[in-house]
């Protein structure tokens, strides 16, 4: 059986939440199984046909190339871990902001799980493909906002990394972007506004996460949690220092979702998994 067609996929991942660090044997074994399952998905993505994806029985998602990366690469184990967190928390959260939505996989998964989703994506090519994925899944709970998210709103410069557009970013967020680049101007929504409107934020902003997370006061986190990636060691240190000793707790996949006690426990890139930020004292895995 294809791993992805197992209706219990998300629940089984959640049951192993204390083994999610990449250093764990469970992660290595499950990663290998998921790689095989990802390849089996390719015909469905290429043809636009339905496929089962854990608890989601009638999903569609397109095969789409983004330079060196294609849409199959979006189904990696660390993403499945986040999807399982969504599944475990479908009665705890209601409104989700998907910041850095790319071509919409997180949003589509969230929509199928019954969440109301507002998705932010500034790249015009990604926006067009995202729109097709929403339509193919007949989802009405997703609102696609063709904007970036920054601290103050307005317009911002956005750098498209043409060799891998999953790495595109607000200009300046990455010190040495590689390959052929294209810079465009895009509109942006202030991050603070989203804290007032959503109870969970998925954050994938390619090195801009410290700018956003450190820009608001502790009181503004009363009813909103964040799950996402950290792009650099410098960002990890800034985020850790900002919330150390505060009322906000950091949790790290790198340490099997334990509360972060030192900067060494912070993920410093997507290769070390995700982080979770909340005023809660534990994640909602059980």
CA distance, first residue to last residue: 27 Å
Q: What is the top-level CATH class?
A: Alpha Beta
Q: What series of H and E elements makes up the topology?
A: HHEEEEHEHEHEEEEEHEHEHEEE
The largest pleated sheet is described as: 8 strands, mixed
| Spatial arrangement of strands, main beta sheet | 7-6-5-12-13-16-14-15
- Could you estimate the helical fraction of the residues in percent? 25-40%
SSE blueprint:
Blueprint: H1 9-15, H2 25-47, E1 51-53, E2 56-59, E3 65-66, E4 69-70, H3 77-88, E5 95-99, H4 105-112, E6 116-120, H5 124-137, E7 142-145, E8 148-150, E9 154-161, E10 169-170, E11 181-190, H6 191-197, E12 200-203, H7 209-213, E13 225-228, H8 233-243, E14 249-252, E15 258-259, E16 275-278
Describe this structure in words.
The chain is α/β, with parallel strands linked by helices and 286 residues long. It has a single domain, classed as 3-Layer(aba) Sandwich (Rossmann fold). 30% of the residues lie in helices and 23% in strands. The protein has eight helices and 16 strands. It has helices spanning 9-15, 25-47, 77-88, 105-112, 124-137, 191-197, 209-213, 233-243; strands spanning 51-53, 56-59, 65-66, 69-70, 95-99, 116-120, 142-145, 148-150, 154-161, 169-170, 181-190, 200-203, 225-228, 249-252, 258-259, 275-278. An eight-stranded mixed beta sheet has the order 7-6-5-12-13-16-14-15, sandwiched between helices. It has a four-stranded mixed beta sheet with strand order 8-11-9-10. Helix 7 links the parallel strand 12 (200-203) and strand 13. 42% of the residues are buried. The mean pLDDT is 96.
